[in-house]
Amino acid sequence: MVTDKVLIVEGKQDKLRILPILNEVVEIICTNGTISEDRLEELLAPYEDSDLYVFFDADESGEKARKLVQHYFPHAEHLYTRRTYKQVEHTPQNYLAFVLAAADFQVNPAYLIR
């Protein structure tokens, strides 16, 4: 099933961290770290007509992957964690909820409470 929104993250732990926050069906794709151009196109080809969102770590490998996505899928919206958290999986869930809500994802309101 192809959904309207596709969230691209680096790893399984990122996906597991985000899943309970979402209050809508969103396809979450893991790149599993470093990704090649061919693998990226293979992963995202079924979602060309979907809204693509990229949520990578605030580190060198995340930035490298982000640039690759930006080159091949310039319409993708990029979401960012703070550099102090470095990784999506270490970002507090209330901050993740804030970022996702700001990008028009439906989030569980319990995560928006500070």
UniProtKB/TrEMBL annotation:
Protein name: TOPRIM domain-containing protein
Family annotation (Pfam families): Toprim
A biological process term (GO) from this entry: rRNA processing
The Toprim domain, residue ranges: 4-92
Source organism per UniProt: Candidatus Kurthia intestinigallinarum
GO molecular function: ribonuclease M5 activity
SUPFAM superfamilies xrefs: Toprim domain
Membrane-crossing segments per the record: none
